[in-house]
TrEMBL record:
This is Exostosin GT47 domain-containing protein. GO terms for cellular component: Golgi membrane. It is a single-pass type II membrane protein. Keywords: Glycosyltransferase, Golgi apparatus, Signal-anchor, Transferase, Transmembrane. The lineage of its organism: Eukaryota, Viridiplantae, Streptophyta, Embryophyta, Tracheophyta. InterPro entries: Exostosin, Exostosin_GT47. Residues 2-129 form the Exostosin GT47 domain. The keyword Nucleotidyltransferase does not apply. It comes from Microthlaspi erraticum.
Amino acid sequence: MVTWQDKMRRVERPNLFSFVCGPRKGLEKAAIRDELIKQCNDSSRCELLKCESGGSRCHDPMTVLGVMARSRFCLQAPGDSFTRKSTFDAILAGCIPVFFSPHTMYTQYTWYLPDERRSYSVFMDEKNNTTQIEQELSRISEEEVVQMRETVIGWIPRLTYAHPNTTNYGLPDAVDVALVALAKQARIKHLLFVRA
């Protein structure tokens, strides 16, 4: 894990941003994805990996991680459900996620991520479809990008699962984080029950 984190710190990231996506049907989902695809296609600073049905390169983890590892920011359009696998791929690649809906990450992974959203991500409201993504991301200073990426990379162990046979791992994984949070919730509920 530490070796992977160090690799993600050192990797060259020539792209300002990237978008790994498949087309969606339905007005709302299609509209935001179509706009992100258009802006990515129109930018010389974006790498697009379009996931079509059939023999898609999007099913090859190394292809997906390669695109994301070459990028500073990874666009995270709302998916078929609130959870988006690509968000976890981006974090694993040390790519700062850019969200367009608060439900993609902020409202459902509070146990796993810092309270300060700006420390590890960028939020662009999907309702404001006039946002110029390249311009907005270009405004973020290099110092901020480095700090945000370090936060993302630091959280990789917390969002992955250690192999059950691993010894001397020493880092909290996703199960550890969940168990600590559940124990905290149980203590709070117990205290509330006792006081009632």
